[in-house]
Amino acid sequence: MMKKVKLGIIGFGAQGSAYAGFIAEGKVENMEVGAICDIDPDKKALATEKHPDAPFYDNYTEMIESGNVDAIVTCVPHYLHPEMGIAALKANIHALVEKPAGVYTKQVRELNEFADTKPELTFGIMFNQRTNELYQKVKEIVDNGEIGDIRRTNWIITTWWRPQGYYDQSAWRATWEGEGGGVLVNQAPHQLDLLQWICGMPKKVYSNVKYGYQRDIAVEDEVTTILDYGNGATGVFITCTHDVMGTDRFEILGDKGKIVVDDSKKVTIKRLKQPESEMSSNMSMQDVMEIFMGKGPGELYDEEVIEFESVWGAQHTAVLKNFAANVLDGTPLIAPGSDGIHGVAFANAIHLSSWLGKEVELPVDEDLYLAELNKKIEEEKRTPIEK
Question: Which stretches make up the Gfo/Idh/MocA-like oxidoreductase N-terminal domain (predicted)?
Answer without folding.
Answer: 6-118
